[in-house]
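fold-stage: in
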Amino acid sequence: MSEGAAFGTDQNAPIYSPYSQYSPVSEKSLSNSVDNTAFYKEIVSNSEKRLPNYQGYIENKRWLEIKTENTRYLYSLRKAMNGLATTASAKAAAKKVFLDLEELTYGSTTKNQEKCEKAYAALKTDFADYKKQVGM
């Protein structure tokens, strides 16, 4: 086979896709050796600082602000929480937090203040439970 004519087909390792020169993730991948724990803890801590903002948004019926807050910095929260959750109970606690955030978003979309207040109260307790599960 010629070099470059069929790039990636004459290599020993299988290629990731016909359109990429990168091989699939395996045990030999460098990304497996990176410890993101400190970075994930920082994201969770910064996200926790944003949670009190919801109270004002709900009281003043600023529905768009709730959805915006969920997509600003909290966008990375799911990956960080899943990265820190190593036990089954921690993963279940993280899932509760995600469901609370989704319920809060749904309540703001339907402009239902009671639903938002209920979701916010559940979010605070479930977030505290998650932090206890992962040792933060």
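fold-stage: in (second)
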Amino acid sequence: MPVHDAFFAHCRSALAGIPPWPPWSRGWCAAVAGILEAAAAKPGNVHPGRSFPDLTCADLSAAAIASAGVLAHADRNALGETILAAVRASRRASPSNANLGIVLLITPLAAAPTASLTAAVVDGLLAGLGPADAAAIWEAIALARPGGLGRSDRWDVAGPPPSDIVAAMRHAASRDTIARLWSHGYADLFAGPVADLAQAAAAGMPLEEAIVRTHLLQLAREPDSLIARRHGTAVAHDVSRRAVALISRVGHGTWPAELVAFDSFLRHPRRLNPGTTADLVAAALYIVLRDGRLRPALPFTTPPFPEFAIP
């Protein structure tokens, strides 16, 4: 099956599993963002044509829908408890850590009081977190068992929770992009992947292409912190340099073959999974779904998407 067809086939199947939540609501946008991110054939990531031994595209979509049921009420509940409940729901739906990073990124967005999302609104919510939130978030991270964290001399996940989760994230900011966004502000997310995705959608770019292009632009902009933790900063920077070179080839006749070659490089002989970059793309998808900027690019309207068709 061609990659493009596989994207729409997976979306059609996964979207049919979303409960009848109001379209464009918190839960609906969280589920759709996770499904679209999982379905796009981003180099080095899981998608319908590529799996890892411990993770499939179906796992990602199931976790997205399960956690979205919790995120639907993120504006009514404590942020820490929402994250913990979302991770618990995801672990029931998937045998491995499918979406901890996505949950950590999207929950503060879903907790915002309106659909008009800005970095300042999110940063304000994070600044108000207390010890109970920190304890719940610490438990959620331990439950998800993310790979590549290593050990820390302070605020190790295996130890007691911090009283200030933002301070703990600040301590980890140099080695984790999500921790940096939590501690130093969401501005980079809005200025980077969100702007890239919104621009692609406004230009009428096909949906999967827009998602893949956003992923590559972010990988070119910043080394993936999951790759850096697992394989070292030199490897992560090399991957980013290759993404820069690949982006410069967009539009050339060899572009499709070069994209396939980059994907193969990221898989063999080592699994150089740019997983944090994928998490950022999912969060960007949530934002442009929630504020309406992605609507013209979507080939469906409302659940159960009877109009969904392969273009």
